């Protein structure tokens, strides 16, 4: 029996599809103690993590290893004055120490604040100005320590500074201290409602927001891991994500360990689709999850056989049907798309046991009640576009939904206006209950009196062989209000030309109603993206 069964009651149909789930837990539930340490007690030799890096190093850790190392880090951090409620920033890339230190912070009751190593000095400064960060644990690589020190100085702030593995000037070598620490750690009293972690959003439409989750958050990822990613007991799950992003929590620790799967971690800097598939095959990964960008590159550059792989999933942005089809042709696997936000866990997906509708966001999670509302707050009919909202049962915040925005209660109240949580995303629902993404409300194009979702145009545009990446936005137009413009990154072997521009425009427009026609095309070497890799349409609009 996997440990997740202690925390939920489920109802499945004859195909294994989840019909209902009831999650239950003690008031003092803490993932580090009640899941990780408990597995270590009952199955100490059970595989927890397989780690390798681009230099050829590799390590395998059991749950007994993870318990021991997290206890030692908890004792070390405690000796440095870090305790319950303290905000601690982790900038640890994909180093295996991240998992030990994250769990140590959970055991202490501190608030973990993961960030990506790709932040620049001003990005760090913003985060130090926004949050009261007591301590930072960082990689020694990529000049990150210097950026952190410069940011703290610019912000007029101070923090306990720690690095791992190597000595860094001005930083405590946490790895050295940890080696001498006690392997046992007495449980700290925490509550399930206490703050456990805070992520900064990717900031696609404004400054990043601090999103706080409580200690019950990991349990909502039972659905993520078991029913969407299809991670399995004694399997090996591989999610491509850096630890600074919420996707790491979705796919690199909580749900996977709850269902008994080990996690695969590949520590790399430069994305290479060939290396990813080599990792999958070498370690016999059984389930795989990656953002759409990874699948685009895999498909465009050729997808090799991956015989150990039983399931593949994607989320983060919306993937064009062309990629679904070509991936299935190469591997025999359907890509299971899912949808959620940093503020939530998985809200809808193409789950195990149900028909996969390629290009759809799947059906509503049994954990949540989702509705599509128009601008007046009225539920729309099937086939009509509305904003995705979460409707709480009995007025209670659903499990897995964030508990606050850091320092901005007004923003939090606005997100919950009208008694529902507003995602800001628009979609339509078909007669089978599947959701289909339409666009961010901020991204909707209004042209000639029509409301147009850029995604439906991008879906067609990406099918042209010359198009590697694209983004469609509305730009000012005196006649139509907004005209539709496509920004295109060309595939290898193609060069910008008036002839190619005409060919792409005619190819795309021939498949669209006239009011959706692309009027302008701009070829570019790269699209502006957030640090997490999401295309910044706002920057494209502002460039016009």
Describe the overall structure.
With 544 residues, this protein is of the alpha/beta class. Among the domains are: 26-215, Rossmann fold (3-Layer(aba) Sandwich), CATH 3.40.50; 448-542, GMP Synthetase, Chain A, domain 3 (2-Layer Sandwich), CATH 3.30.300. Helices cover 29% and strands 26% of the residues. A hairpin with a 3-residue loop joins β26 (467-477) and β27. α1 crosses α2 (63-79) and α2 (63-79) packs across α3 (97-108). The longest helix is centred in the N-terminal third of the chain and has 17 residues, at 63-79. 48% of the residues are buried.
Q: How do you describe this structure in short?
A:
This protein is α/β, with parallel strands linked by helices and 544 residues long.
Itemize the secondary structure elements and their pairings.
Blueprint lengths: L7 E5 L5 E6 L7 H12 L4 E7 L4 E5 H17 L7 E5 L5 H12 L2 E4 L6 H10 L2 E6 L5 H12 L4 E4 L8 E2 H6 L15 E6 L9 E5 L2 H12 L7 E4 L6 H6 L2 H5 L3 E6 L5 H11 L3 E3 L2 H9 L10 E4 L6 H11 L3 E6 L5 E4 L13 E2 L5 E4 L12 E5 L13 E2 L3 H7 L5 E9 L5 E6 L4 E3 L2 E3 L1 H8 L5 E11 L3 E10 L7 H12 L10 E4 L13 H6 L2
Helix pairs in contact: 1-2, 2-3, 4-5
């Amino acid at each position: 029996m996997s440990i997740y069964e202690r925390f939920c009651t489920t109802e499945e149909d004859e195909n294994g599809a989840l019909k209902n789930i009831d999650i239950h837990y003690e008031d003092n539930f803490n993932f580090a103690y009640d899941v990780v340490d408990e597995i270590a007690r009952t199955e100490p030799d059970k595989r927890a993590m397989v780690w390798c890096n681009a230099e050829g190093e590799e390590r395998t850790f059991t749950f007994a290893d993870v318990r021991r190392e997290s206890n030692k880090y908890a004792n070390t951090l405690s000796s440095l004055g870090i305790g319950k409620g303290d905000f601690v920033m982790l900038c640890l890339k994909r180093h295996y120490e991240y998992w030990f230190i994250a769990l140590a912070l959970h055991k202490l009751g501190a608030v973990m604040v993961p960030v990506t190593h790709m932040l620049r000095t001003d990005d760090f400064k913003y985060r130090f100005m926004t949050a009261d960060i007591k301590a930072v644990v960082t990689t020694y690589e990529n000049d990150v320590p210097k950026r952190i020190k410069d940011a703290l100085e610019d912000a007029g702030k101070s923090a306990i500074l720690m690095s791992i593995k190597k000595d860094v000037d001005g930083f405590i070598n946490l790895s050295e201290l940890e080696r001498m620490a006690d392997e046992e750690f007495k449980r700290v009293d925490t509550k399930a409602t206490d703050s456990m972690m805070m992520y900064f959003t990717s900031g696609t439409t404004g400054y990043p927001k601090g999103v706080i989750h409580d200690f019950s958050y990991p349990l909502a990822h039972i659905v993520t891991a078991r029913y969407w990613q299809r991670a399995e007991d004694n399997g090996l799950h591989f999610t491509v994500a850096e630890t600074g992003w919420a996707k790491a929590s979705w796919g690199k620790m909580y749900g996977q360990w709850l269902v008994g799967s080990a996690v695969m971690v590949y520590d790399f800097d430069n994305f290479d689709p060939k290396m990813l598939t080599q990792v999958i095959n070498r370690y016999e990964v059984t389930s795989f999850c990656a953002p759409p960008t990874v699948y685009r590159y895999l498909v465009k550059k050729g997808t090799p056989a991956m015989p150990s792989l039983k399931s593949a999933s994607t989320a983060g942005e919306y993937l064009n049907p062309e990629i679904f089809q070509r991936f299935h042709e190469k591997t025999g696997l359907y890509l299971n798309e899912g949808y959620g936000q940093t503020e939530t866990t998985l809200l809808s997906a193409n789950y195990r046991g149900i028909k996969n509708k390629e290009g759809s966001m799947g059906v509503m999670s049994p954990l949540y009640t989702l509705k599509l509302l128009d601008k007046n707050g009225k539920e729309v009919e099937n086939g009509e576009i509305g904003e995705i909202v979460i409707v709480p049962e009995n007025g209670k915040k659903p499990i897995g939904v964030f508990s606050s925005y850091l320092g901005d209660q007004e923003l939090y109240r606005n997100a919950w206006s009208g008694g529902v949580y507003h995602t800001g995303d628009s979609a339509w629902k078909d007669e089978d209950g599947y959701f289909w993404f339409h666009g961010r409300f901020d991204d909707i194009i209004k042209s000639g009196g029509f409301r147009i979702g850029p995604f439906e145009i991008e879906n067609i545009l990406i099918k042209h062989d010359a198009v590697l990446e694209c983004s469609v936005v509305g730009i000012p137009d005196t006649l139509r209000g907004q005209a539709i413009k496509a920004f295109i990154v060309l595939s290898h072997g193609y060069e910008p030309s008036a002839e190619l521009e005409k060919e792409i425009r005619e190819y795309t427009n021939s498949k669209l109603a006239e009011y959706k026609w692309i009027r302008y095309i701009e070829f570019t070497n790269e699209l502006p993206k957030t640090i997490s890799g999401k295309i910044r349409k706002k920057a494209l609009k502002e460039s016009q």
